[in-house]
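ping. complex inputs:
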Amino acid sequence: MSAKASVLPFVPRSGLQSAARHPSSPAMNQAVTFDRDTDPWTIRLQAVALERDRKAYAELFRHFAPLLKSFALSTSGMSSNALAEELVQEVMLKIWNRASTFDSAKASATTWIYTLARNCRIDLLRRKFRVHEEVDVDELWDFGTDPEELHDELYQKRIEVDIRESLRALPSEQRQIIAKVYMEGKSHSEAAEELNLPLGTVKSRIRLAMSKLKVMLER
Amino acid sequence: MNAMTAPCFHPDQFMLSDYAAGSLQGAVALPLAVHLEYCQQCRRETQQLEEVAACLFENLDPVPVGEDTLEQVLRRIDSIVADDVAPAQGAVPAPLHAGIPRALRSLVPAGLDALDWKRIGSLRSSRLRFGDSEREVALQHISAGGKVLGHGHRGVEITVVINGSFSDQDGCYRSGDFLMRGPDDVHRPVAAQDGDCLCLAVLDAPIRLEGWVGRFLNPFMKIRPL
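pong. complex structure:
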């Protein structure tokens, strides 16, 4: 980890268009343009974890809170401003409280924060629709990582870069569908209905997109 | 929770991506979470699917938050005494919970023996209170060599093997294996001779028994979510 830099590198909002162009260490593969060790959000999150750094926290807030609000508002069945603000506050609070459990070897800050937001959304939807499920959301949606899997850290990082690059290269129709399913929490049939497409088409576009994203390992 | 061998039967990629997106309905997430505890391959895929989701998340159009939201959050931070820490990872389970997947423990707070088991032939079944009003969640225990009545399904039955193994005409299923049976699948599960088999099952419609027993009983079969 690059030590607490006094001036944190500025990175525009969109990581996709601008996968950080920091010089990689020589040991790194040339293709690696995104690196958690120099990812500004990961560095700030670690500062919050280790030093309870409020300035870094405020910067995380300014970057992530508007994304969290957008994420909440795009959810089907959750379009109220009050609920979206609640999600923002809950997730930002969890970022502060759970920062010490963040492990940059497992995920980047953005991925970690996304999983907090996803779980919080499930929680809020359960509450909104008065569903009382017995198992805690964090128990159902946190599968942990075996220590042995951490050896693959470099491999994981490379996959992360691959995903970013191939997502950018995806045809818009495929990207639109996975965005619907992922960000809006829609089922495949809801997405099909909304886009006015047969369910089979939706499924095959997702399958195609996923194979292009090289997400699926050999079965 | 490491099984001796890696599972051979996995959820399909749509289920994994719905799980990563947080859009799996109700109790369906439960057998998936259990499978992930056994299956490194699916854990990796899920992690990658989360990274896809994180990329999409990062590219959403930002929406301004309230002017005093940061201030409110900071005030809440000042007023709390570290009460919301993440659940401890890899904590040693109570002896009652030995061999029970982590995702299931809160549903069997007092261990397997304390559950209310109903016996149907060589199958013992205990419904769990998950809180999904549309699905029945149950633990099923088949004693060694026990045969379960041949049955089909009116809806979808998801099964994940926790301990032991069972087989039907399509294969043999061991710890961590994830099976999804639809309306057209008829099977007659048999537990392995050398040991009992414990499974978690999630049903969204009653099963349909084969043969003369079924003719009498099918009209009365219901799922009973808790």
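The first strand of chain B starts at residue 118 and ends at 120.
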